[in-house]
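Hi L.,

As promised, Sortilin N-terminal domain-containing protein:
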Amino acid sequence: MGFRHAGQIASIIVDPDDSQRVFICALGNVWKPGGQRGLYRTTNGGRSWTRVLSGNPETGCGSVAFEPGNPDVMLAATWQVRRYPWKLVDGGPGSGIWRSTDGGTTWSELHRDLPPKPYGRIALAFAPSRPHRVYALIEARKGLLWRSNDQGSHWQMMSDNHNLDVRPFYFTQLAVSPNNADKVFFLSMELMESTDGGRTAFYADPMIHVDHHAIWMDPANPDRILQGNDGGIALSLNGGKN
């Protein structure tokens, strides 16, 4: 099975304990309904694929993550989105946060403590140094940044600062430091950083180019950070101070 009709691929993750088990988070072709949308899994290194999470014809997969140290526990976010030449319909009942505890075979949608629907785009990130902690950026009418300390069973709104995600359909990305569960970077028009678990945030470095889309923190040396934006690649050797 190929992915010729998957449109946009939001992410690909590989089981750290089993390289034959791979997940493709496919958003789909946002210009039309249907196609290869949702979360797909292979257990044989890509020879065959099974869709394990899907929604309505306008809903694809926007984000997926393993719990660090326990890849049987996963969180995924679905995103209902449709583009037209004259408008963007961002969000709908198909958007949501889902959890699996059996390696992606079965999924349950999470609702408890989360804001009321509809949602738009959602981003998820676990904290490697505190594996049960997960952050969620949710495009919703109430709140923006949410945090759970128990794999998504309960949630707390941490911030409604929309500087964390200025244009949700275009950005909506975050990353947690490998060695500090309270240190979070938010990739938006500006690069934002929180050092208190999302309660407050500040501009990480106003001197670097705007429009941020990718970040990598070295697990062996978290002070070493590579960050991709519309101006190129930025390197920090002091944990993002500059």
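The first strand starts at residue 8 and ends at 14.

Thanks again for sending the construct details.

K.
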